[in-house]
Amino acid sequence: xxxxxxxxxxxxxxxxxxxxVIYKDPDGRELTVGRxxxxxxxxxxxxxxxxxxxxxQRKGRAEPQQGQVDGLEEAKAAWRKCWxxxxxxxxxxxxxxxxxxxxxxxxxRAAGARRRIVGRR
Length: 121
Prior knowledge:
22% helix; alpha+beta; globular
């Protein structure tokens, strides 16, 4: 199963370089599925970039599911390697699970637009 959505980094408002890793579903839902940040509190400054797959998205993915590396690009590559290690669906929280009988808001808007266009003569 290939996930239809996209993965993006979204900066946080913290003082250090800090990013949420967001899964954007085609139906408009978004979910934080990981985090990457520079850890300035690390003693010695070795391997200051932390990366991790969000706890509820780890099932079926290869170890390591978090770690520390030297740079941002390495952190993104390590995160992606773990993420791509399994072909599992997104573990949506109950409040975000979609009822297959309901249309998404995008589908509802499209259907409404079709009705308005067809209804005019």
